[in-house]
Amino acid sequence: MPTPRADGDREALRILLSARREITTARTRQINRLRALLLAGDETDRDLARGTLTDNRLTTIARRRGKNGDTTEHAVRRAETRRLALSIHNASRELTENKQQLTELVTTFSPLLLDKPGVGPVSGAQAIVSWSHAGRCRDEAAYAALAGISPLPASSGRTTRHRLNRGGDRQLNRAVHDIVGSAQGLVDT
Question: pTM to 2 decimals?
Answer without folding.
Answer: 0.79
